[in-house]
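Suppose a classmate hands you a notebook page containing two proteins, each written out with its sequence and a corresponding row of structure tokens. How would you begin to make sense of it? This section walks through that situation. The first entry is reproduced here exactly as it would appear on such a page.
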Amino acid sequence: MNRTKVDWDIIKDKIATLQEALSQKNVVLPEDKRAILKARAQKLAIEKKDETAWQEFIEVVEFRLASETYGIETSFVREVYPLTDYTVLPGVPAFVIGIVNVRGQIISVIDLKKFFHLPEKGIGELNKVIIIQNEKMVFGILADVILGSHSVPIETLQTNLPKISGISGEYLKGISSNHLIILDAGKILIDEKIIVNQETE
């Protein structure tokens, strides 16, 4: 029976070389490699989360007005009310379609299409009133369709827009990357050309 002679010196040299490589991290075992990749993935996820957390957002109610999609900050929106009935007022500007009674409070309703000279569209069953307010004023804005609400990163807004679809830049907060036109509700609420002198309480 033949026996293979084992050269222990060669084996010892290989073990020593491997140990030296491991100590210098030239060789990464499979389980160590998986751990390194997992740690890198976790770090990237945390960095991405931190980046999103540092972004500033505004929450807007999105709605259709004529052929465009608009947004108005939810911080100014009290509620969305269905336009089922309203009373026409004599002697008011054409953009004031009338008043509505919302749980005992009389609120005037503004048609921004007329105020901004946008293409007209008849009042239909889908019309809603977005009731906006600040500390001193409250009135409703007529909307063709309410599309919902979502957050918009402020840094993505394009500003310095002199005019969009007939709307002067003074009434605009900006336009988002997906072409959502965000109105400046704060300025609309204090605009003397829009305010109708009447009791709202």
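The notebook's second entry, a different protein, reads as follows.
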Amino acid sequence: MATREIIRFDVIESTSSKALALGRQGVATGTVVVAETQTGGRGRLQRNWLSPPGTGLYFSIILRPVLDPNDLSKITLAAGVAVCKAIELELGVLPKIKWPNDLLLDDKKFGGILSETGPVAETAAGHQTLVIVGIGLNIQEPVGGFPSDLQITATTLSQHTDTTVVKEDLVLAIADALDKEVALLEKGDFKKILDQWKQRDGIKDRRLTWVTPKGEKVNGVSLGPDADGMLQIKDGEGKIYTVISGDLSLFGKD
């Protein structure tokens, strides 16, 4: 595995906030910020990410890919593939992905990914953007179990493997896998990433509800992501919607 700096905290508000600040200060690409617990972990759509101590893996990776700004959203899909590959290799389980960033085992969420961007630098090769990829994984249940609102929808890695989860090994495996996927993006080979993502698509051909950014609800069937990585949904009348943002839930589930 590649040598990289890992900066550890027992308690921090958010590994991604810290990684973004460090990235702005010039900390090396590939540096990982890891915390035992977060007091203000972030998920999509301004949601909090539950980060109880001793039960999960919470970390953020500093990247500076040379990409067209229009391609930056593809990093989240690349990260999903990287996390799945590392978990498959390290633990022998086969996660699925719910577009764009939820990680599933047996239809329950055990992890999530949030990509955020910072300053852009102009280089001879093109736009180099500071990108922070934040990853949260449930390793085991908190004492007393998950909160009532998560008991039906959440799971942990330890519930699906007999292999001991060595956190540092998994962090390094994910970071190394992400480097490889981002390198493919920089080469313009998103199709290869997308093909691997589709092999792990956890909602293809399934009924779901999309709540648009305007609050409107669309019920339909997932057609999977298009060539740009945007999810397509077909409603009951055959109309196809392209999902850029908003909230998704499998039909009949929260």
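A careful reader of the second entry would note: The helical segments are 15-24, 74-91, 167-186, 190-199.
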